[in-house]
Write a structure and sequence with these properties.
The protein has 249 residues and is α/β, with parallel strands linked by helices. The chain contains ten helices and eight strands. Strand 4, helix 5 and strand 5 (128-133) form a beta-alpha-beta unit. Keywords: Pyridoxal phosphate.
Length: 249
């Protein structure tokens, strides 16, 4: 039976409060200012009517993996002042849709996509925040640049003036072994440090988007400035991620 709107509101509000408190606690443990970590609620598979309730409960930013799903929700919820982040792989032919509504794109790993997205954004008279995606785990099923290719890739990005480069994004290995997960986050911190020295002028790498519902506290310990949390806010999805996104696990 579907929970009524009032109960959904309370559940999301309580879950948000719990996640935010855990972010504060993780920051204190790491000697960091909690204000330095942004929570990005991940809304993939959550119906638009439930997102309207989530907005009322305090979710004013929303992250979506699939451009089609993000586009449809942004249209249905266009009366709300939601900041949309696309956090999943983007095909070149879908860049025109992203350019119309997204505030942020966290999965750039291709110069073809950079070129097409920049062109489409210029047509729209817009610019958006962009994160370069890195495959920190080395898994063949994951998108993102291999760590050793990031520096050369970044050197070419100043050509695309509508892409405001803000930092890096990764998905850590999905494992119950915290040491293996932490290795991914440490690698990202090391790449960030290198880029701060070597990246072209005008590009910023202050942001590190890493950590999801199962590992965001570890990510914060290793320097995450954005954590992408879905199930801890909205509850478990009806089916495992592999059903919606083959290769995600």
């Amino acid at each position: 039976m579907e929970l009524n709107a009032e109960q959904q509101f309370k559940d999301i509000q309580n879950n948000l409060a719990t996640v935010r408190q855990r972010i504060v606690d993780a920051c204190k443990k790491a000697g960091r200012d909690p204000a330095s970590v942004r929570l990005l609620p991940v809304t993939k598979t959550v119906p638009a009517e439930r997102l309207r309730i989530a907005y009322a409960a305090g979710c004013h930013e929303m992250g979506e993996n699939k451009i089609q799903e993000a586009r449809e929700k942004s249209e249905v919820l266009s009366d709300l002042n939601i900041k949309w982040a696309v956090i999943g792989h983007l095909q070149t032919n879908k860049a025109k849709y992203l350019a119309r509504f997204a505030n942020e794109f966290q999965a750039l790993d291709s110069l073809k996509v950079a070129e097409e997205l920049d062109k489409r954004l210029q047509n729209e008279g817009r610019a958006i925040d962009v994160y370069v995606q890195v495959n920190s785990s080395g898994e063949a099923s994951k998108f993102g640049l291999p760590p050793e290719e990031v520096c050369a890739f970044v050197q070419k990005l100043p050509s695309y003036s509508s892409l405001r480069i803000k930092g890096l994004m990764t998905l850590a290995i999905f494992s119950s072994d915290h040491d293996r997960v932490r290795e991914c986050f440490v690698k990202m911190r090391e790449i960030q440090a290198m880029l701060r020295q070597e990246a072209p002028a005008g590009l910023s790498f202050d942001e590190l988007s890493m950590g999801m519902s199962g590992d965001y506290e570890l990510a914060i310990e290793e320097g995450a400035t954005v954590v992408r949390v879905g199930q801890a806010i909205f509850g478990k999805r009806p089916l495992p991620d592999s059903h919606y996104w083959p290769g995600m696990g």
